[in-house]
Amino acid sequence: MNVNNHTLREKAEQFHQYHIKGKPLVLVNAWDAGSAQTIQSTGAAAIATGSFSVAATHGEQDGEALPFHLVLANLARITKSVDLPVTIDIEGGYGRFMSEVKQNVLQIIECGAVGINIEDQLPNGEGLYRSAEQCLRLSAAREAAEQAGIRLFINARTDLFLQQVPEQHQEALVHEAITRSKAYAEAGASGLFVPGLQHPEWIQQLCEQSPIPVNVMVTSPEPSPNQLAALGVSRISYGPYPYLQVMEHLKALGQRILTGSYGS
User: Fold this and answer.
1) Is the pTM of this model over 0.85?
2) What's the average model confidence in pLDDT over 82-89?
3) Which end is more exposed in the chain, N or C (fewer Cβ atoms within 10 Å of the end residue's Cβ)?
4) 34-43 CB contacts, 8 Å cutoff, 24+ apart
């Protein structure tokens, strides 16, 4: 293992304890060692990556287009550069079958991560794994963690709310998310991640009925962490938003420099 096993176990336990309903862990997503160090310097409790941002910084598209060995190399540089617990977005696990997921998660732990996001969206981005099949994949991830002796935080992401625009969401999706949260928890998931869910009443309903902590993704200044805390959210992440904001700033800065308006 690239990091001390005892230290990794401690970080994993610490990371679990940060997930408190009504007092959420706030994660400003990083994409490489430099951004992780910057986020650590702000007083963050943990470091999380986002697959979109990691892919983009390598010049690739999201959706497992970035080769897995580069995902691992990037993760290893991040975990070596910061002292905080690190959780990584591994999209669909870079493999459909249990054996593939287990082997990949073992390598993720070897590189020093104490948490993963793993989604139920099919690799082509259209439709979701059946709940039963996704549960097998989550069980494989949990088996990998047990084999490594690490209490890995498995954040089971459901893409139910990303399959449609928010204006088309219906309460039936919330009921399906609750059903999946219960099944995923039994399969070994530590948390439920629901990117795309924005309706406050439905967020609250899900938080009340999910047996595992709920993670909401924010991609704008609103809602605030305090607003989401009041709904019972246990974890807030910002996905690609920090990377996109930094790139917009870089673009504007470059334009000012090149047109001679910078500093004038």
Assistant:
1) yes
2) 98
3) C
4) 34/81, 35/242, 35/243, 35/246, 36/78, 36/81, 36/82, 36/86, 37/81, 37/82, 40/82, 40/83, 40/84
